[in-house]
Amino acid sequence: MSFKSLTAAVALIVATSTPFMAISETREERVEAAKGYVEMSLQDLDMKALIQTMWKPVVQMIESQGKEVSAEKQDQIDALYQEAFTEPMYETMRGQTEIMADLFTLDEIQALADFYATEHGRATMTKLPQLLEAQQPEIMQMVQTEMGTLMPKIIAIIDAE
To answer: Mind listing the pLDDT tens digit for each residue in 21-74?
Structure first.
């Protein structure tokens, strides 16, 4: 194969492996589409419930060790977390627009927005905190169980010459 044929073949592979929309769309268009998607998704997201998934597993772990945490104390913990995390969580979620613009094509962002505009999409957003809450204790237990084994190995890796 000649150098000219090889160059043409490489150019053809590069041209066909790059999505057309990624070539013709601008990042600004993707950012704007992502902003719309994120704002729409935040309307249906139960942020209070999502934040509760952050502290409930901690309380469950404490209670599993025999210490009772009354409903009043849980309310105090909830108020503490809600005050500390509500606005930062909204800011973090809104920060997804830039990340989405870098990761997704305009068509992909629009497809997400189209899905979340449906009844099933909105149901997904409202049930997401419940999903996280149900799975979080298992994840925390797994991490807690493995950390005793992993930490010495991590330290050995870091300390190795």
So the answer is: 445 789 999 999 999 999 988 988 889 988 998 899 889 888 989 999 999 999
The answer to whether the beta carbons of residues 105 and 23 sit under 8 Å apart is no
Query: For residue 146, which amino acid is it?
Result: E
Tokens 């627009």 belong to residue: 97
Residues 116, 102: Cα–Cα separation, whole Å:
20
Q: How far apart are CA 35 and CA 45, in angstroms?
A: 15
**8 Å CB contact between 125 and 91:** no
Q: Answer whether 130's CB lies under 8 Å from 48's CB.
A: no
CA–CA separation, 140 and 115 (whole Å): 31
How far from chain centre, in Å, is Cα 155? 28
| Structural contact between residues 21 and 101, judged by C-beta atoms closer than 8 angstroms | no
**Distance (Å, whole) CA 41 – CA 100:** 13
Q: pTM above the 0.90 mark?
A: no
Q: Which residue in 76, 101, 85 sits closest to 51, CA to CA?
A: 85
For residue 156, what is the enclosing H or E element?
A: helix 119-159
List, for residues 83-107, the tens digit of each pLDDT value: 999 999 999 999 999 999 999 999 9
CB 60 within 8 A of CB 134: no
